[in-house]
C-alpha cells in the first residue's frame, strides 16, 4: 500500500482504470463513490478545505503508475461531492471547490463541544482565537477555513447560542457565547 505523506492510500489508487472515467454506469458509480470517500478522508486528515480544479492536488495523480485524472474526471468527482452536500463550488466558474468534510451543523456541534470543554460558556473569544488560539490546538477547529467557521457561528447565532460582534477588521471579530 502506498502512502502520501502520513496518509495511507487505498489499493485502488494503484489501479490505472480508476484514473479514467469508466463508461459503464455501475462501474462509474463505484468509481465515483471510492473517489468521493478518498477526497473527503484525505482533506479531513490533511485539513484541506479548498481544492482547485485546475491546480495541482496530490490525489489527482499517481506518478508510480504514471496516471493522472483528466479535468472531466476531477470535475465529476467534485460535482458528486457537491450534489451530496459534502462540497460547494466557489464562484460561478466552478474552478475551486470548498470541501465540507463536516456539514455546517456538525461544525456548529464541534464548536459547542469546544466551548464546553474549555469552559468558555458566557465568555467572549475572537474568531481568530477559535481558528488558531492555544485552546484550539489539537482540535478540529485548529486551522478551520474562516468561511466555514463563520457559517457555523451564524447558524449558532440564529439558534441563540451566541452573538457575533463586528470588529474594526476581520481579525478582531468577536463571539460571545450564551449557553
UniProtKB/TrEMBL annotation:
The keyword ATP-binding does not apply. Keywords: Protein transport, Transport. It comes from Carpinus fangiana. Transmembrane segments: none annotated. Coiled coil: none annotated. This is ESCRT-II complex subunit VPS25. GO terms for biological process: macroautophagy; protein transport to vacuole involved in ubiquitin-dependent protein catabolic process via the multivesicular body sorting pathway. InterPro entries: ESCRT-II_cplx_Vps25-sub, ESCRT-II_cplx_Vps25-sub_N, WH-like_DNA-bd_sf, WH_DNA-bd_sf. One of its GO terms (cellular component) is ESCRT II complex. GO terms for molecular function: protein homodimerization activity; structural molecule activity. It comes from the Eukaryota. Belongs to the VPS25 family. Pfam families: ESCRT-II.
Amino acid at each position: 500500500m502506498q502512502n502520501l505523506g502520513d496518509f495511507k492510500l487505498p489499493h485502488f489508487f494503484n489501479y490505472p482504470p480508476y484514473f479514467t472515467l469508466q463508461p459503464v454506469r455501475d462501474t462509474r458509480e463505484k468509481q465515483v463513490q471510492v473517489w468521493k470517500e478518498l477526497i473527503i478522508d484525505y482533506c479531513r486528515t490533511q485539513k484541506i478545505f479548498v481544492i482547485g480544479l485546475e491546480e495541482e492536488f496530490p490525489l489527482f495523480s499517481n506518478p508510480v503508475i504514471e496516471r493522472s485524472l483528466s479535468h472531466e474526471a476531477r470535475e465529476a468527482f467534485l460535482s458528486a461531492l457537491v450534489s451530496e452536500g459534502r462540497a460547494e463550488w466557489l464562484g460561478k466558474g466552478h474552478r475551486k471547490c470548498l470541501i465540507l468534510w463536516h456539514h455546517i451543523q456538525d461544525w456548529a456541534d464541534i464548536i459547542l463541544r469546544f466551548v464546553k470543554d474549555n469552559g468558555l460558556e458566557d465568555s467572549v473569544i475572537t474568531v481568530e482565537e477559535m481558528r488558531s488560539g492555544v485552546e484550539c490546538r489539537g482540535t478540529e477547529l485548529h486551522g478551520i477555513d474562516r468561511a466555514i467557521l463563520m457559517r457555523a457561528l451564524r447558524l449558532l447565532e440564529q439558534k441563540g447560542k451566541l452573538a457575533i460582534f463586528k470588529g474594526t477588521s476581520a481579525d478582531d471579530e468577536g463571539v460571545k457565547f450564551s449557553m
